[in-house]
Amino acid sequence: MKQLDLFENQDDEFIKEAENLLLEMELELEKLEEQEWFLKENKAFEWDKEFPQLCDADGNFEGFDLIVGNPPYIDIRNVESNLKSYYNIHYAKQKNSFDLYSLFIERGFSLLNKNGYISYIVPKPLLYNSTFSPIRKQIFSKEVIELKLYNNLVFKEANVENVVFIVNNAKPKNDKFILKNNDKSFFF
Fold first, then answer.
1. Residue 168 above 90 pLDDT?
2. Would residue 93 count as lying in a domain?
3. Structure confidence at residue 90 as a pLDDT band (50, 70, 90)
4. Ramachandran region of residue 182, left (φ > 0), alpha (ψ -120 to 50) or beta?
5. 184 vs 120: CA distance, rounded Å
6. pTM higher than 0.90 for the full model?
7. Alpha carbon distance 128, 55 (integer Å)
8. What is the rounded CA–CA span in Å between residue 188 and residue 97?
9. Quick one: 157 and 130 in the same domain?
10. What's the per-residue H, E or C state across the chain?
11. How many domains does the chain have?
12. Could you give phi then psi for residue 6, rounded to 5 degrees?
């Protein structure tokens, strides 16, 4: 351990502060590189370069007219922890969600233009599981064109009953939505 010398040059203190600042900057750079790696690894791109026809004159993304998909049914609890923290930061509606398809729904809505349509086939628990309440509110805050339940297994390997929805990103025409299925009613 170094002893303090009253006659010592104070440049050592300055060097120490500079080294600490450099260390902080290196840590920040590592964080940025990690984000860049994540974006590169997940094939992220810039909308104005990849889809210029979907952007206004200033290059601002305006959205897709139609998004159709069958998102993955993956339990997020089994995903690496750094990805979980990314999801919690970037997906506000489904914080601490336990299934990846709900994040796909949220992202799909964010990619639609103001009058665009979204249609997904997803597991039926979306309609009644409390974890999905925020994403249900998002779906039913829009104009639901069709909601179809499949009581039989659509994908036998998935071993889950499915629901298909078609939603227009415009405001809803009705204030309430009632879905009846096998003597059960769901109110949204």
1. yes
2. yes
3. low
4. left
5. 22
6. no
7. 37
8. 20
9. yes
10. CCCCCCCCCCHHHHHHHHHHHHHHHHHHHHHHHHHHHHHHHCCCCCHHHHCHHHECCCCCECCEEEEEECCCCCEHHHCCHHHHHHHHHHCCCCCCCCEHHHHHHHHHHHHEEEEEEEEEEEEHHHHCCHHHHHHHHHHHCCEEEEEEEEEEECCCCCCCEEEEEEEECCCCCCCCCEEEECCEEEEC
11. 2
12. -60, -20
The pLDDT value recorded for residue 121 is: 93
CA distance 95 to 146: 27
What is the extent of the structural domain holding 78? 48-187
Query: How long is the chain?
Result: 188
What tokens appear for 3 in the block? Answer: 């002893």
Quote the tokens at residue 164: 């298909």
**Mean pLDDT, all residues of the chain:** 76
Q: Are 105 and 95 in contact (CB under 8 A)?
A: no
Integer Cα distance of 100 and 43 in angstroms:
18
**CA dihedral of residues 67, 162, 168, 103 (deg, nearest 10):** -60
- Same-domain pairing of 27 and 105: no
